[in-house]
Amino acid sequence: MNLKDRVALITGGARIGQAVASALADQGAHLVLTYRTSKTSAEESAAFARARGRRVLLIKTDLTLNRNLADIILQIKRRFGRLDILINMASIYKEQPFEKLGLKEWDENITANLKHVYYLSLKAAPLMRKTGRGRIVNFADWTVASGRPRYKNLLPYYVAKAGVVGLTEALALELAPDILVNAIAPGPIIPPARGVSEKEKRAVVQATPLKRWGGPEEIAKTVLFLVETDFITGECIRVDGGRHLY
Fold first, then answer.
1. How do residues 167-225 score in pLDDT, each as one tens digit?
2. Among this protein's residues, is 118 annotated catalytic?
3. Class of 7-245 per CATH?
4. Most exposed: 12, 53, 63, 110, by fewest CB within 10 Å?
5. Domain boundaries, the chain
6. Is residue 66 scored above 80 in pLDDT?
7. What's CA 134's distance to the chain center, in Å?
8. Exposure string (b/e) for 103-131, b if CB count within 10 Å is 16 or more?
9. Could you give the CA distance from residue 92 to residue 175 in angstroms, rounded to a whole number?
């Protein structure tokens, strides 16, 4: 897919999302950026895109609560009249000991990491099909793509991300041949914004065959690859520096 004058919706636009937004704008795409608390990041991405002549729509919403999802697509239709690319990045990541898990934690993870991906894709597909084709890129996790959990205290998160992989495969079948659906499973891309010591960061590097954090540009490159390809669908690509090999 040539990105010139295509319209891309990116959810979860902070940190890695900024690199993805910049990459798409550089290739000619207009942007729709949703944000919950990261208004500054969204505005920075918008300024970058506008400086390159792209149109931008910013939408403040809390996707983790699955509210106003249909309205997001309606706003895009009114503003641009089309939608070509959906990048489902919004997610939460919280550790919780098994002994303290309950339905609240389960529902929170399923809602924030899986449910809105499902619903946004459903609502976006008819608008994408009006232009004849589209691309959906979901975000899973390297542990899920490796076929087994690696860390304790992340049970509902792992299950939700496993659901993202299953959803990606099922959507790819349902939406073919018009819409290609794939997923990215990030590994050690950038350290968490808080709560990780320098010792823990070094331990991740040592456990990664390529001996470094990947950087958000690696995710942006993979998004571009999956958007531009015309013959890959239903795949989940690990971007983890070989972390799954250890």
1. 999 999 999 999 999 999 999 999 987 778 999 999 999 999 999 999 999 999 999 99
2. no
3. alpha beta
4. 53
5. 7-245
6. no
7. 16
8. eeeeebbbbbbbbbbbbbbebbbebbeee
9. 27
